[in-house]
Amino acid sequence: TGNNCATATTEVIPASADLSVEKAGSPDIVSVGDNITYTITVHNAGPSIAEDVVLFDHLPAYLQNPQYSVDNGDTWLDWTKHLKLGDIKVGDDYDKVVLIRATVGPKDAWIKNNCCHDGFYRTECDDDDSLWSHAPAVRSGSIENRVFVHSKTADPDPHNNRARVVTTLRTADL
C-alpha cells in the first residue's frame, strides 16, 4: 500500500510594522500673530502593513485656530488633536504627509480645548471633554510641539514613534 500522508510545519510570525514620525516647523522664528506650519511625515519600514494608524498632536494652547491638510495644502480642515490615517503600506512610496497650521496667539487668552488626554493619548473625545481653559502667557523663548503615531500592529521599535520640534518665539518688549 502507498503512503498518502504528508506533514508540514509552518512557523507563524506575528505581523509587525516599524512606524516612524518626523516633524518640522516653518518658519524657524515666529512672533505673536504669525502663522506657523508643521510638516509631519509618517513612514512604515515594515515588514508588515501598519493597520489603523492614528496621529496625535496636542498643540500648545496658544497656537490658535489649528487646521490640517493631507493634500499638500489644497484643502484645510479643523484640527482635533488626532487624525486617523488608516492603514499604511511598507516603503517610501506610501509615506503619509500631514500639514498642520496655526496662529501664534496673544500673550493671554482663553482657549476651548476640543479634547483631553489622560497622561498618555486618547483617540476619542466625549462632549464633556470640551472645556475652556486659560492659556499660559506667551513669552520670548520657544514653542515646543510634540507628535506621536500609533498603530494596532505591533511595532518592533516604538522609540521612533515620537518627534518634537522647537520654534523660536520672539515677542515685543513693552
Please outline the helices and strands:
Layout (H helix, E strand, L loop, with lengths): L16 E10 L2 E2 L4 E13 L2 E7 L6 E7 L7 E2 L3 E7 L7 E9 L4 E5 L17 E5 L5 E10 L11 E8 L5
Task: Describe this protein's structure.
This protein is mostly beta strands. 0% of the residues lie in helices and 49% in strands. The chain has no helices and 12 strands. The strands form 3 sheets. The protein has a 5-stranded antiparallel sheet with strand order 1-3-8-5-6, with no helix packed on it. Strands 2-12-11-4-7 form a 5-stranded mixed sheet, with no helix packed on it. The chain has a two-stranded antiparallel sheet with strand order 9-10. Strand 5 and strand 6 form a beta hairpin.
* Low-pLDDT segments, ≥5 res: 109-134
Task: Give the termini distance in whole angstroms.
Answer: 100 Å
Regarding quaternary structure, what we see is single chain
Tell me about the biggest sheet?
5 strands, antiparallel
Structural class: mainly beta
Number of separate helices: 0
